[in-house]
């Protein structure tokens, strides 16, 4: 057998599992693909691939989707295969300081149902029970058998050790050292993955978004806070205890404005939603009742003061983003969060400042993508949470056994 690189040797069952997973991984990345075209991607022989795809079709894990045109020399028309994304489901949970947001998705993270409720308390055990109750409600209401749910992903702010399922620090909930993934899994009996909400957003973009075909990405989330996720070689860089990515808490003005973290002069305190609004209000103390939405309306209807604040914040963020790009050399920058709705008044000066301060070889072919932000309850954060469970599934192949 022609074995794919890094495939397990000496254990036929482990090798078979690995090869089946390789087929699914490549179908996820490539989309509908013929058996012939899968051969060079997977490293499998044509006979092995044909046999394994027949098994996967019989189990309902992949489907034949369409028939392509014959080649230049004629011959048999290729049949395209794709993952049967509707066969299994995932649950995503976004946990804020006040609310629980849940979605039920299929394996493509397409949202099938969503539900939001206020938190009924912040004690970890009570929150875990609340999550379990709502998850069971989604599954039963939409007639999804528990064994067709591949697991649950949970996203929340703070420092998260995803490998242990531990919330090391979360300020809104007042949690320190909480084994929250374990607590939830005890009540749901579902595999549960937990991570920082920006890492969850990055997982979503890597699976089915702008980062699907890329190995080196810089993901920036700006809204109520400012953070980043760095993907190198197709893997998320976590740093010690999952603490990497706190880009927003670099000090840019010692002794400056107090940040949400309690320190002074952080970048977040000047370019996040609340930081930008604070700058505007400092310049216009007579308008202290304005919200961010009010300020954006002013900017989009020609108010020069509001426009200037957005432009200067964009320039400032672009300047500091250039530092990250110069160090890590990503292929793409993906930008999300509530600030995605700021529009060209913010992003044009941001990109101009970014490119102006890049080391010349980094400027091209660097691409910049802004992920649309909507105010629906199933925002990119909670879809990203579901992506954590889906990503785990494609990495481990825990779903590959016949039901």
From TrEMBL:
InterPro entries: ArsR-like_HTH, ATPase_NBD, ROK, Tscrpt_reg_IclR_N, WH-like_DNA-bd_sf, WH_DNA-bd_sf. Pfam families: HTH_IclR, ROK. GO terms for molecular function: kinase activity. Residues 21-63 form the HTH iclR-type domain. Signal peptide: none annotated. Keywords: Kinase, Transferase. This is Sugar kinase. It comes from Deinococcus roseus.
């Amino acid at each position: 057998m022609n074995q794919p690189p890094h495939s397990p040797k000496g254990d036929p069952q482990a090798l078979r599992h690995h090869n089946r997973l390789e087929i699914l991984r490549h179908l996820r990345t490539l989309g509908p693909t013929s058996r012939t075209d899968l051969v060079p991607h997977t490293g499998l022989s044509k006979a092995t691939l044909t046999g394994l795809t027949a098994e996967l079709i019989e189990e309902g894990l992949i489907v034949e989707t369409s028939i392509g045109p014959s080649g230049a020399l004629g011959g048999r028309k290729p049949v395209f295969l794709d993952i049967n994304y509707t066969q299994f489901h995932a649950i995503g949970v976004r946990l804020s300081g006040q609310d629980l947001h849940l979605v039920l998705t299929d394996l493509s993270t397409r949202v099938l149902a969503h539900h939001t409720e206020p938190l009924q308390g912040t004690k970890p055990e009570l929150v875990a029970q609340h999550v379990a109750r709502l998850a069971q409600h989604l599954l039963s209401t939409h007639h999804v058998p528990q064994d067709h749910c591949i697991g649950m992903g949970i996203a929340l702010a703070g420092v998260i050790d995803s490998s242990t399922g531990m919330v090391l620090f979360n300020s809104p909930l007042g949690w320190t050292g909480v084994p929250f993934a374990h607590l939830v899994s005890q009540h749901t009996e579902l595999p549960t993955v937990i991570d920082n909400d920006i890492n969850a957003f990055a997982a979503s973009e890597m699976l089915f978004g702008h980062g699907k075909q890329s190995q080196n990405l810089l993901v920036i989330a700006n809204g109520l806070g400012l953070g980043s996720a760095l993907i190198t070689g197709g893997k998320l860089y976590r740093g010690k205890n999952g603490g990497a990515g706190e880009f927003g808490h670099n000090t840019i003005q010692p002794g400056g404005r107090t940040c949400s973290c309690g320190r002074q002069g952080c970048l977040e305190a000047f370019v996040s939603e609340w930081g930008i609004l604070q700058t505007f209000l400092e310049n216009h103390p007579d308008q202290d009742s304005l919200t961010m939405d009010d300020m954006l309306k002013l900017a989009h209807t020609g108010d020069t003061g509001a426009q200037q604040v957005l432009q200067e914040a964009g320039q400032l963020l672009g300047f500091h983003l250039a530092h990250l790009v110069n160090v890590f050399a990503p292929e793409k920058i993906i930008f999300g969060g509530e600030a995605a709705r700021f529009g060209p008044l913010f992003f044009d000066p941001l990109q101009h400042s970014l490119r102006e301060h890049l080391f010349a070889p980094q400027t091209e072919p660097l691409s910049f993508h802004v992920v649309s932000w909507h105010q629906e309850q199933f925002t990119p954060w909670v879809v990203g949470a579901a992506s954590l469970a889906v990503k785990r599934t494609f990495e481990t192949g825990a779903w590959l056994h016949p039901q």
